[in-house]
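Budget justification, computational time. The allocation requested in the original proposal was used primarily to generate C-alpha cells for proteins on the priority list. As evidence of use, we reproduce two of the resulting records. The first is shown immediately below.
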Amino acid sequence: MKPTAPLPQVQRYQRWSDEDLALAFRAGDLAAGEALLERYARFVYALASRFGAADDTAGDIFTDVWIKLQQQIAGYQQRAGFRAYLRAVVRSVVIDMSRRERRHSGQLSLEIASSEEEAPLGELLPDTIDLEQALLDQELLDLVQRAVRLLPERFREPLELYYREGLSHGVIAERLGVPKNTVTTRIHRGREQVRRQVERWLDE
C-alpha cells in the first residue's frame, strides 16, 4: 500500500513544523494529527516493514497507528521529538499485531520474542539517550542488540558476561583468562562502540 497525496483538510498545515503539529494535535486538533501522520506515511510503512510486518498488513498498521496516536498523544513529550515518539508507536502496533496473530496461529515470532527476552541489554544504552524514552521505544533496544552482535568477540564477550550474566570484572577476567584491567577496558570500549553505532543508526 502506497502513501496517498495529502488530504484536502490537511493541506493548510503543510508549512507547520512537526512540533507545531504535534502540540496542536495534543491540544485536541485532530486535523493537525492527520496532517502529521500523512507527512510521515512513508516512514510508518518503511518502519513497519523493518519491524517485520507483512506488506498486506500495511493498511491495518496505518489505521492502528492513527488510533493509538489519538489514545496516547496526551502523553507526548516535546523534548523527545515526534519522530522518536512515532517510532515507539509503530513498534508497539507491530508487536500488538504480531501477538494477535500468534494467539490465532499458536506460533511465536522469534525476532520479537528475542528482543523482549533480551531487554536487560537496555542497560547498555548510551548516557546521551534518555532511558525513559529508551524503554518506551523498543526499537532502540533492538538497535542495541544489533550493535552488540556486530562487536568483535574480544569486546562482545566481556560485555555480554557483564550485562547479561551480571558477572563482576574480576570473575570475567578469570573466565576469559585475561587481566582484570583488560576486562574493564574492553567493556568500556565495547560500550562506546555500541553507543556510536546506535547513534549512527538513529541519525539515518
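The second record produced under the same allocation is shown here.
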Amino acid sequence: MSRATLSFLLSALIAGLAQPASAATRRLAVLVGNNAGSGDRPSLRWAETDAAKLARVLVEVGEVDSEDVALRLGGSVADLEGALAQVKERLAVARRTSDARLLLYFYFSGHSDGESLELGRERYPIARLKARLAEVGADVRLTILDACRSGAAIASKGGSKAPPFEIRMADSLVSTGEVLLASSAADELALESPEVRGSYFTHFFVSGIRGAADSSGDGLITLQEAYRFAYDRTVAASSATLQPPQHPTYDFRLSGQGELVLAALTARTAGLVLPPGFERALVLDLARDQVVAEIPVGASPRVA
C-alpha cells in the first residue's frame, strides 16, 4: 500500500452528546491550560488549545455535562485554586443529594520544572495540587499532566518510564482511588507539533477517546485503551523528531474491578468511518482551526 494522508474537513460533524453508560456515575472536570511559563521560557503555542480540546471531547463523548466542566485558560494560581474550590463544592452537593459515584478529571497543559506547574510567572507546587485533589471528595480522580518533566510527579513515588498497563476498574465506579498520567518522564521534554497543532500526548489521548484507541472494536474506549494508544503513538511520533523520545508515565492507586470507560461511542448518532486504503488520516475542524483527531494505520477506522 502506498503512503497516503487523508485530511477530512470537519465542522458540523461532531455534535450532540453520548448517552451516559451508567446513570450512577457523575463525571466532572477541571482543565487548565497556560502557554506562558516563568522566567524567560518561550511561550508554548498550543497548551491552552489542548486544554480546550480535551474539554470538548469530554463533553461530546466522555459523558461529562458541560455545566460540570471548569476550563481555565491563561489564568493565575488564584484561578486554579478557585476552580478546585468550586468543584469541591459541586462534589459536596452531589454527595448530599444523590447516590451517584463521582469521578473527577484534572488536566494541566503548560510549562513545568518537574516540581511545580507554571502559570505565567507564578508557580503552583505539584505537591500542593495533589493535596488539594485529595480533599475534593471524588471517589476516583484521574489527573493528567501534559508538561515537560511531568513524570517527576510520579518518579518521586518510585515510578519510571512506563509502557501500557493493565488497569481493572468498574465502569459504575465501584472503586476508589486515583490515577495520574504524565506526558513525559521526569527528565524529558513534552513536545508540541505544528502538524497536529498541539502536544503529541494530548493529541493522541484525545484521538484515542474519539475512537482511534478502540482496539477491541466494541465502541467503548477504556482508560487502558486510551493510555496504550497515547503512549505508543507519542513515543513513535517523538522518536521521529530531532529531540529525544518522549515517554508517558503513569501511577495508579485504585481498588475495584472492571474497566473504566472514558467514552461510549456505540450511542453516538454522528461519526466518521474511514474507507480502506489510507495509512494515516487527520480529522480537521476548520471553524476552530484545529486537528480534532488522528487515525494512524492499524487503529480503529471510526471516530466520533
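A brief technical remark on that second record: The chain has six helices and 18 strands.
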